UniProtKB/TrEMBL annotation:
InterPro entries: Gprotein_alpha_su, GproteinA_insert, P-loop_NTPase. Pfam families: G-alpha. Keywords: GTP-binding, Magnesium, Metal-binding, Nucleotide-binding, Transducer. One of its GO terms (biological process) is adenylate cyclase-modulating G protein-coupled receptor signaling pathway. It comes from Tritrichomonas foetus. Residues 18-59 have a biased composition (Low complexity). This is Guanine nucleotide-binding protein subunit alpha-1. The gene is GA1.
Length: 413
């Protein structure tokens, strides 16, 4: 499906984590980017359709290229009280406008999907929460194994009193072992060891999730027989996506179905199953992991893997007229890393800007993705959003804006 825009553009919907009410248009990717004030960026915002929600799905309309005039926002922009919001529907059968949610492994797209289910579909039921118990416990064992491996590889020394515990934990099948109180106590004691803490400070050199300290700090709760994962626990549980999941949203009578597909290399062959069912792509990138290696290939950085995937997907013939929504994910962690370390210029030695300015570094990466999509196509917009997948308000806002864009460009009122 084609987009109604008559010329290519890169819309940047967020700056520094802020979430304006609608996407903003920037210059075509072939032009040299210029710095703009927030007020100048907001002046480029397109108009959006805000009609009352309808109960039945609307019919797709014939595409008519229309260039929308810029809209002048008020000095202090606030969401209109009557602004339509998408709502979730438990419907996987009715024909809907499809969006492919994809990205490299560990991009945060599955967390994005979980947020949609939590906020739009009435949350996660207890039986589904319980299915995360083994995953969370396995995450902890696997992470400790990775920390031990880092210590050994760098010739550090864990306190000798833990020698037997280290040997025992290293031999476990992380996701198929009994998470007993004895094992939990060993993990808890090891976590406090100075060498293990040093290893965690270097977690970017490993495949350990950034937030594993969250679980280690509540390990006494996780080992209880009656433990039921909370929303925060579920969002932080690390599961390598297998197969295809979907969430269906309804906005102004338009059904929009988001297909979440696995990001690991062995799962990407399954993307073709839904390629012909979608009219747009939500591409999720973890900016925070620009210096972390891939799970399957530790010689390849995740950001470079994401760039290659984005290039491949944007050059597919069946997507040449479809909108792309680029999600710059985990911006909070990215900002902290940029401000407090020198890692950005180590990974990108050609970067000449302020290496400790999160917004400047973010824009540098965004430009790389826009360049990867070249040559620009006349009927395909690329709209950029910035978020933390753990921030439900940002995820909900972005999902709503994406739905409004699809509704206003592909469906009749």
């Amino acid at each position: 499906m084609g987009c109604s825009a008559s010329k290519p553009y890169q819309g940047d919907a967020t700056r520094g984590g802020a979430l304006p009410a609608s996407p903003q248009l920037a210059q075509p990717p072939q032009a040299q980017p210029q710095s703009q004030s927030p007020q100048q960026q907001q002046q480029l915002a397109p108009q959006t359709v805000e009609t009352a929600p309808a109960e039945q799905p609307a019919q797709p309309k014939e595409e008519q290229p229309v260039e929308q005039p810029p809209q002048q926002p008020p000095a202090e922009e606030k969401p209109a009280e009557s602004a339509p919001l998408a709502r979730g529907v438990k419907d996987d059968e009715t024909e809907a406008f499809g969006l492919l949610l994809c990205g490299a492994g560990e991009s945060g797209k599955t967390t994005f999907t979980r947020q949609l289910k939590l906020k739009f579909l009435g949350g996660i039921q207890k039986e589904d929460r319980l299915s995360f118990v083994q995953t969370i416990r396995g995450n902890m064992v696997e992470s400790m194994q990775q920390l031990i491996f880092w210590v050994e590889r760098h010739d550090k020394e864990i306190s000798s009193e833990f020698d037997e515990d280290v040997a025992h934990i290293s031999e476990l099948n992380a996701f198929d072992c009994e998470f007993s109180p004895e094992l939990a106590d060993k993990l808890k004691q090891l976590w406090q060891d100075a060498a293990i803490q040093e290893a965690f400070e270097h977690k970017d050199e490993t495949i350990i999730p950034d937030h594993m300290d969250y679980f280690f700090e509540k390990i006494d709760e996780l080992v209880e027989d009656d433990y039921v994962p909370s929303d925060d626990d579920v969002l932080r549980a690390r599961i390598r996506s297998i197969g295809i999941d979907s969430v269906t949203l309804l906005l102004e009578g338009a059904l929009i179905r988001i297909y979440d597909v696995g990001g690991q290399k062995n799962e990407r062959s399954k993307w073709d199953k839904v390629m012909n069912e979608v009219g747009g792509v939500i591409f999720c990138v973890s900016f925070a992991e620009y210096d972390k290696p891939c799970f399957e290939d530790t010689s390849l950085l995740r950001i470079n893997d994401a760039l290659e995937i984005f290039k491949e997907v944007t050059h597919r013939e069946n997507f040449k007229e479809d909108p792309f929504f680029l999600i710059c994910n985990k911006f909070d962690t990215f900002s902290e890393k940029v401000r407090t370390t020198d890692s950005f210029t180590k990974v990108f030695p050609d970067y000449t800007g302020d290496a400790h300015d999160p917004e400047a570094c973010r824009q540098y990466l965004v430009d790389k993705f826009i360049e990867a999509s070249n040559p620009p196509l006349p009927d395909r917009p690329i709209i950029v959003y910035t978020q933390s997948a753990l921030d439900s308000s940002q995820v909900v806002s972005n999902a709503n804006e994406i739905c409004k864009y699809i509704c206003s460009n592909f469906f009749e009122e």
